[in-house]
Amino acid sequence: MGRTRWVAGNWKMHGSRQANRALLDELVPGVSQLRGVECVVCVPFPYLGEVAGKLGGAPIAWGAQNVSEHAQGAYTGEVSAAMLAEFGCRYVIVGHSERRQLYGETDAQVAAKFAAVKAAGMTPILCVGETLQERDAGKTEEVVARQLGAVRFEEGVLAYEPVWAIGTGRNATPEQAQQVHAFLRRKVSPGTAIIYGGSVKPQNAGAIFAMPDVDGGLIGGASLVAKDFLDILKAAAK
Ligand code: PGA
Known about the structure:
Layout: E1 5-10, H1 17-32, E2 37-42, H2 48-55, E3 60-64, H3 81-86, E4 91-94, H4 97-102, H5 107-119, E5 123-128, H6 132-136, H7 140-149, E6 157-160, H8 174-185, E7 193-197, H9 202-209, E8 216-219, H10 226-237
Parallel strand pairs: 1-2, 1-8, 2-3, 3-4, 4-5, 5-6, 6-7, 7-8
Helix pairs in contact: 1-2, 1-10, 9-10
Bound molecules: 2-phosphoglycolic acid (PGA).
């Protein structure tokens, strides 16, 4: 209550110039009718400029899905925070579990990326979350506390994304999400938005967003389907 509601789409490595245009053509008028929810789309690097151009003036912010922890230099294939900021990018997902798991990103790297995003004047969306093995071992709180504690977290968006719920169709129950969100809430400043991610769909968004410490969602698969993403935004706007 009183905190801003957020819904961010994480397109991951999906899209094409044509598909992006079609998606945004549907999203912009839909989002324009909504009140009380911040909408962000996090797009693959090559599309940032075009998406920025298309969204100029629309109530949808755009962001990136990753960033280099370095300011500049001989880092082939990397993209700096300053480069993103130059495109008007306002958000950057940091520490997504796919980055941690598939690309070996460590807590220390995630912390450095978080700091780089802040230094460039953008807002990091920090992802934390446990694997199924860690949950079954009763280590959920220990893991998310470690991941959050590694970062000097202030003024960002925090996303709780249980790894076992991402792209699996198996979302955390609203109560499971609430439990971890309430735990995280005690570790961040009162105004911090804590959003949930992991198989959020139009069918379950309302129940998850109704939890007192859930301020919205980070949406993967369903953010690629305009109607689904809009329905999820509507559930958050209520
Ligand atoms: P999903 O992905 O909604 O497809 O489960 C969420 C995420 O990885 O951010």
